[in-house]
């Protein structure tokens, strides 16, 4: 008997991704995007790349991956199988990063992480949970086994990538931590170390540290991942080491990096960009090509590796898994 494999709506055809061995030079992408969404539309907010104070933070060593540790490379989850896919080259994904804690210049972030210390690292789990405490990355990876998944990544600035993340499903971690019935939201907080990342002092007008929030049902969704690796290796610093959120149906700004605290709450918490500019960044920040950003359309996106434009999919192509979360009550 012949069997047929029906691919879900979020499946990526091979033509949609760029071969990892095609280490082409990065395109001058910012020429087309201008300052970008998070630049707040003014060059006066951009720190000088020639500032000698920034050179103090320079990355003297390698800019790619930390040493491997037990669990890497992790087995790939066949529900998100990328064995027939080819991803955005690692050389591009690790040198084009939105991480304001280091720089607003996406091409310089990886050069300014030299003083950033990611080992040891603990994540404080607090709030409405039966197993609160301070967990190391290894503790978390022991609670829930690592797995690899290939996801689309869509930035609010209208560029995109395809990335192979390694991490632990957030929903399974919530189960292991025994989240209490009263919990309805998660508040996630990033690091705040001005002596290790120059953006804190250069952009002191921002309400650091960076923070984000999810509804509990979003966190429990099968797609939600706490990533501790990428491309089969532990996360590089510029990609949010040692642990970050990956929710692929939302714009990249929701995917908070370098998490130090997760609080389970009964009431909704704010989010960094929504608090600063609610007219531009919604609390949910779901990818929706029908809703334009106030300054540009979200109907299309540019692949960061090829420069090609393509149509943006509702929920970034993951509607089959998440659309039920947003139906009217």
Largest sheet entry: 7 strands, mixed
CATH fold type: Sulfite Oxidase, Chain A, domain 2
Please tell me how large the radius of gyration is: 19 Å
Broad shape: globular
Q: Can you give the helix content as a percent range? A: 10-25%
The count of DSSP E runs of length 2 or more, i.e. the number of strands, is: 12
> What is the number of helical segments per DSSP (H or I, 4+ residues)?
9
- CATH superfamily, please? Oxidoreductase, molybdopterin-binding domain
User: Could you say how many structural domains there are in total?
Assistant: 1
The whole-number mean of residue pLDDT values reads 85
Mind telling me which CATH architecture this is? Answer: Alpha-Beta Complex
Unreliable runs = 1-53
Structure classification: alpha+beta
Strand and helix order: HHHEEHEEHEHEHEEEEHEEH
């Amino acid at each position: 008997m012949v069997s047929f494999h029906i691919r879900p709506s979020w499946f990526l055809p091979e033509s949609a991704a760029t071969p990892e061995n095609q280490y082409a030079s990065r395109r001058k992408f910012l020429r087309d995007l201008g300052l970008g969404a998070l630049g707040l539309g003014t060059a006066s907010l951009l720190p000088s790349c020639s500032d000698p104070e920034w050179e103090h933070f320079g990355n003297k060593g390698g800019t790619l991956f930390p040493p491997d540790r037990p669990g890497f490379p992790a087995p790939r989850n066949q529900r998100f199988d990328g064995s027939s896919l080819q991803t955005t080259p690692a050389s591009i994904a690790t040198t084009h990063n939105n991480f304001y804690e280091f720089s607003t210049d996406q091409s310089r972030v990886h050069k300014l992480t030299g003083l950033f210390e990611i080992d040891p690292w603990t994540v404080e789990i607090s709030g409405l949970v039966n197993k609160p405490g301070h967990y190391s990355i290894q503790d978390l990876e022991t609670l829930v086994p690592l797995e690899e998944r290939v996801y689309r990544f869509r930035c609010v600035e209208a560029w995109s990538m395809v990335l192979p993340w390694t991490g632990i499903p957030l929903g399974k971690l919530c189960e292991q931590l025994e989240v209490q019935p009263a919990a309805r939201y998660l508040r996630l907080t990033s690091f705040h170390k001005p002596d290790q990342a120059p953006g804190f002092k250069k952009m002191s007008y921002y309400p650091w540290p960076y923070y984000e929030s999810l509804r509990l049902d979003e966190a429990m969704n099968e797609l939600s991942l706490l990533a501790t690796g990428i491309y089969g290796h532990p996360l590089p610093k510029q990609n949010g080491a040692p642990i970050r959120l990956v929710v692929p149906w939302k714009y990249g700004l929701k995917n908070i990096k370098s998490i130090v605290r997760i609080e389970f709450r009964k009431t909704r918490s704010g989010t960094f960009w929504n608090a600063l500019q609610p007219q531009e960044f919604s609390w949910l920040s779901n990818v929706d090509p029908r809703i334009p950003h106030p300054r540009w359309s979200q109907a299309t996106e540019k692949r960061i590796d090829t420069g090609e434009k393509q149509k943006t999919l509702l929920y970034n192509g993951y509607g089959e898994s998440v659309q039920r979360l947003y139906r009217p009550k």
